[in-house]
Design goal:
The chain is α/β, with parallel strands linked by helices and 257 residues long. It has eight helices and nine strands. The protein is globular.
Length: 257
């Protein structure tokens, strides 16, 4: 699968700022676009506005100034938060059914879509389990299945794997790329891990804080599918060095404000 450097834009943020009611300027003068079919990571230190930018794309919060423009109309989108945010009294099946139930589908209509979403994240056979019976990684898989079940064309993910151990995180990274390739999604992914961003993305937007803005736009032009061999390759290490330097520069710039 090729990278999509020249793909048309799906959404633009232009000259966007966000100031919260307590006077904190989270973002100022932010220009950002997600391209159709791309896997774009927003990488930066805590407090640089990565999550705020994602929430503005999702329509969960409005910009104070500037515009969010959809080139082809606002698509169906899914959102995966840092925490799995599952309802403990519902089974895995019931949690994944929730957005379809809200959309008016019956259990019978939803059944094939839920089965498909659970299969994509490796949870077939766990339909009747409750969240308390699942590991952290499996709970996150349920959260991803719940986002996929509405068949979104845009999937927004806010540091979904930050709390997981490295082995679980690597496995979920692999599975996420498989889902992305199979469903031809556009993904916007927030992380503070250089290694994760380089492994997953075809494009990394490095952000600096105070105020939050994009300071580097880096293409990761390694081909997909990316396997364990990519993680240990010189190409991967080369990109990690470039991105690490850009992140270090971005964090150094914080003291200027």
């Amino acid at each position: 699968m090729d990278t999509v450097t020249n793909a048309p834009p799906l959404v633009h943020l232009e000259k966007v700022s966000k100031t919260f009611s307590n006077g904190t300027a989270a973002i100022a003068g932010l220009d950002l676009e997600l391209r159709c079919g791309s896997f774009t990571s927003l990488l930066g230190p805590s407090g640089c506005g990565k999550s705020t930018a994602l929430r503005m794309i999702a329509g969960l919060t409005a910009p104070s100034t500037g515009s969010v423009t959809w080139d082809r109309g606002r698509p169906e989108l899914g959102f995966v938060f840092q925490e799995p945010t599952l309802m403990p009294w519902r089974t895995v099946w019931g949690n994944v059914f929730l957005p379809l139930r809200l959309a008016g589908l019956t259990r019978a209509q939803a059944e094939p879509r839920i089965a498909d979403a659970l299969a994509r994240v490796g949870l077939t056979g766990f339909e009747r389990s409750y969240p308390r019976q699942l590991s952290g990684g499996m709970k996150m898989r349920v959260s991803i299945a719940r986002a996929l079940v509405t068949h979104p064309s845009l999937l927004l993910m806010d540091e979904p794997f930050a709390a997981l151990d490295e082995i679980t995180r690597s496995r979920l990274n692999d599975d996420l790329l498989s889902v992305w390739a199979a469903q031809r999604l556009t993904i916007g992914f927030v992380t503070h891990s250089v290694f994760e961003s380089v492994f997953l993305s075809d494009r990394i937007l490095v952000m600096a804080a105070r105020p939050g803005r994009v300071v580097a736009d880096i293409a990761i032009d390694a081909p997909y599918p990316r396997t364990e061999a990519f993680r240990t390759s010189e190409v991967y290490n080369h990109h990690c060095r470039i991105v690490s330097k850009a992140l270090k520069d971005a964090m150094g710039g914080q003291h200027d404000h």
